[in-house]
Amino acid sequence: MVNSSQVTPVVPLELLPLQTKGRWIVDSRSQRFRLKCVNWFGASGTQHVVYGLHKRTLQDLVSTLVTWGFNCVRLPFSLELFFTNPPVPGSKTRAEPAMAPGISGMDAYDQTVAAITGAGILVVVDNHSSDSGWCCEASALDGVWFTHEYPERRWIEVVWGSGSVVDGKVLADWPSAAERAGNAVLAENPSLLILVTGLCYGHDLRGARDRPVQLDVPGRLVWTAHSYHWYFWWHHDIFAGKGTGAACLGLSLVCLVMAVLVLGRARRSGRRGTTPQACLEVAGAYIGFTGLVFLLYSVATRSVTSNEACSDRGRRDVEPFLQSGSVLLALGLLGIFLSIALRVWQCRRRKVAGDQESGGEASGASPSHRQGCMACVVPVLVGLALALGAVAFFTLSTVSYWLLVDHLDRAWGFVLEEGHDYTAPLLLGEFGTDKQDDFWQGLIRYITEKDLDFAYWPFNGQKWNYEKGWFIEETYGLLDSTWASVREDWKLRDVIGYTSPGR
């Protein structure tokens, strides 16, 4: 256990309580106070205690947090932990002498909070899930604030009293539920900050535009959101990033050059296409190109899973692109097919006319006729070139920073805009990675430029394998599996600006 009398607190008591002013969190002197947090999970799982105490003491782990420069820890817990208060398996706390074998989950949680706050580090008490375990299955209700086992009334009773239940849709009820719970907390302690997360795994705060949360005590609301690369379909490895985009761009240019060469030979043969054909080819190709880009964008941004834990707002934003893209692509393909049909029909008509002029002699098609008929492949080549160009445009643009900013601003970044009813600070409560890719670099840039409060996921060096029943590597963790060393120095440097000695 960290003895508070023996350490200099990370956050001096005279700076508390914190409050909000516009989009900022400020201290008791009304100076900007930036929460630099890390998630330390385990208590919300089936082992009922933060992970790592099987290898190191609380004091050792908290000292690491102090050394690295974090001023805040987000501690997830489950409703099941609170209501059942199960015993912690002794093997999970064997390195912590202050936790006797069989200690209850809530006592272990309280001791963890005491150790962290004893070092002057702030704690975000995070009701992470209802059932103990890994959160959350897309088909389950565990991603929202109520379940059949733990209705809203019991959720509010966890630490702050009782409240009423209002039936209705998730999207409609959440702001009111957040207000009832937040006001219950503030009735007990008006100095606390109330963190309200978005729907759909914390990624969607769009409902705040239409229905912002209003608490009884002003200056206490902090929005919180999550952001991982899997929220963004285009950042999966399906397109392999810039390499595929460059390859598609090259193939697109090859197809265009081939189309120009074929068309040039056909024109030199004297077989020029008609105006309707030219119009259909050009219009069809470019309309189809636009439609394909719209469709790709729609598929990429329409990553909200349809289930009770998610609203439909992620879908709503891309419906215009999806519908217009489908129509444009259909029209473009129709134009290209019609132009091909026209060319084939004209080619056959010229062949028949040529046969009649030659008196029916089986002399075969003339070279000029063959060159003219070759123009039939022009719209195919142009269409293929533009299709590949659309894929190239999509893959090259999706790794760009502007698209990430646009998506994050629409999902939750807008709450930082001053002068609105929904304006409040935002804590990026979960974000993490195991690779230094374009998305990670873009997200770190966004956090820096927006000067966001944050909580990296996670501090842990290991996590519990629920299927096999033992600890495995936590590749997103800041610690390695020994719980004593940094896993990847670049990650810690990006998150908190800390570089391990000797690196």
From TrEMBL:
Keywords linked to the UniProt accession: Glycosidase, Hydrolase, Membrane, Transmembrane, Transmembrane helix
The keyword Manganese is assigned to this record: no
Top-level taxon in the UniProt lineage: Eukaryota
Molecular function as annotated in GO: hydrolase activity, hydrolyzing O-glycosyl compounds
Transmembrane portions of the chain: 244-266, 278-300, 320-342, 376-404
UniProt domain Glycoside hydrolase family: residue ranges: 38-138
BP GO annotations: polysaccharide catabolic process
Cross-referenced Pfam families: Cellulase (PF00150)
PANTHER family given in the database record: CELLULASE FAMILY PROTEIN (AFU_ORTHOLOGUE AFUA_5G14560)
Annotated family: Belongs to the glycosyl hydrolase 5 (cellulase A) family.
Record's protein name: Glycoside hydrolase family 5 domain-containing protein
The species this protein was found in: Alexandrium monilatum
